[in-house]
Design a protein that fits this description.
Blueprint lengths: L4 E2 L9 H9 L19 H18 L5 E6 L2 H13 L5 E6 L2 H10 L4 E7 L28 E4 L1 E2 L4 E2 L16 E4 L16 E5 L10 E6 L16 H6 L9 H17 L1 H21 L4 E2 L11 E6 L5 H10 L2 E2 L10 E4 L6 H18 L1
Parallel strand pairs: 1-13, 3-4, 3-5, 5-8, 8-9
Antiparallel strand pairs: 2-10, 6-7, 9-10, 11-12, 12-14
Helix pairs in contact: 1-6, 2-6, 3-4, 6-7, 7-9
The chain binds 4'-deoxy-4'-aminopyridoxal-5'-phosphate (PMP).
4'-deoxy-4'-aminopyridoxal-5'-phosphate binds next to α3.
Family: Belongs to the class-V pyridoxal-phosphate-dependent aminotransferase family. SerC subfamily.
EC number: 2.6.1.52
Main location: cytoplasm
Length: about 375
């Protein structure tokens, strides 16, 4: 068996220990005589799995009292509709900060449901490469003080722009506006203060587990302001009241997520992950920075630790670069089709050894082609 170094942006690498445990438990979970996939979601076996998953996630993320943790479906793009449907019942208004491709999709989708405005937009339409390279200064954000919420994307997976500070809504003149954050691609990568948010969501297929599961953490008071048309299966209130069992949840994805949460706890939790993620991303960025052969565009203060987009100055070498990487077992380095170039995703389950191998390859490829 050969495992590669998988730099995919998602679905992405999972811890090998988790995959092995899932393989061992595939045919007979804990003496039940069946696979988790085959169990009733309402039986005592699966109930114990989902309860453990919620408890572990609460512990890992230090989720305060007064928040519900929901296991839903629909992914990040689903949430782009599900959030407005659940929150815009208040007064129909919400504001968005656009820092990359995903928040741009979020604002467009929300515009179907209410009066939506951009509080700030970092798009540089004139740039040939690197249309999104920064988080606009908080002081420049125009937030309506009566908005039902302010949405931003904490880590732009395609553009490689990450927020390292949480906006202070009082300083923005909107102390009562809850923050909604898309954490799809950096959830569990470092400690985050959930009490600063009204709602955080993330698709599982990067730092949590298999696709199909969406985690939503929502402050209790926000369960009460859905639009009348909000679908029942996507109503946070109904899902919360039914402990994520209003309809059949993605049971196998929740089971694997739980194994990942246990693995994370064995590693020392999110503080230990942050140390590793800093070390991995610094190694890669310093390799790129030391070279004239490679180009990055994102401002240093906002460079994502999870997703590192970069370009070869001579783009005619792209295919040779990817072919050589593949020969060394370094896979899925092609950039998102909308921006081109390369991208290395360094989620929790990517080892430092993987980033060292990539860094070595970057230097060797430059030597042979520079
Ligand atoms: N938001 C972010 C930050 C993402 O990275 C992604 C997926 N790459 C999405 C939303 C969309 O997620 P999904 O494909 O699960 O709908």
């Amino acid at each position: 068996m050969t495992r590669v170094f998988n730099f995919s942006a998602g679905p992405a690498v999972l811890p090998e220990e988790v995959l092995k445990q899932a393989a061992e438990e595939m045919l007979d979970w804990h003496g039940s005589g069946m696979s988790v996939m085959e169990m009733s979601h309402r039986g005592k076996e699966f109930t114990s799995i989902i309860e453990q998953a919620e408890a572990d996630l609460r512990e890992l993320m230090s989720v305060p009292d007064g928040y519900h943790v929901l296991f839903m479906q629909g992914g990040g793009l689903g949430e782009n509709a599900i959030v407005p449907l659940n929150l815009l019942g208040k007064n129909n208004k919400a504001d968005f900060v656009v820092t990359g491709s995903w928040s741009e999709k979020s604002i467009k989708e929300a515009q179907r449901y209410g009066d939506i405005k951009a509080a700030a937009n970092a798009r540089d339409a004139s740039a040939a490469q690197g249309k999104f390279t920064k988080v606009p200064a908080f002081a420049d954000w125009q937030v309506r003080s009566d908005a039902a919420y302010l949405h931003y994307c904490g880590n732009e997976t395609i553009d490689g722009v990450e927020f390292f500070d949480v906006p202070d809504m009082a300083a923005l003149g909107a102390p009562d506006v809850p923050l909604v954050v898309d954490m799809s691609s950096h959830i569990l990568s470092r400690p985050m203060d959930i009490s600063k948010y009204g709602l955080a969501f993330g698709g599982a297929q990067k730092n949590i587990g298999p696709a199909g599961l969406t985690v939503v953490i929502v402050r209790d008071d926000l369960l009460e302001q859905a639009q009348a048309v909000c679908p029942s299966a996507f109503s946070y209130k109904l899902v919360a009241e039914n402990k994520s069992m209003y309809n059949t949840p993605p049971t196998y994805s929740i089971y694997i997520a739980n194994l990942v949460f246990q693995w994370l706890k064995r590693q020392g939790g999110v503080a230990a992950m942050e140390k590793q993620n800093v070390a991995k991303s610094e190694l890669l960025y310093s390799t790129l920075d030391a070279s004239e052969f490679y180009v990055t565009h994102v401002e240093k203060a906002h460079r994502s630790r999870m997703n590192v987009p970069f370009f070869l100055r001579d783009e005619s070498l792209n295919d040779a670069f990817l072919a050589g990487a593949k020969e060394r077992g370094l896979l899925q380095l092609k950039g998102h089709k909308s921006v081109g170039g390369m991208r290395a995703s360094l989620y929790n389950a990517m080892s430092l050894a993987g980033v060292q191998a990539l860094s070595g390859y970057l230097k060797d490829f430059e030597k042979s082609h520079g």
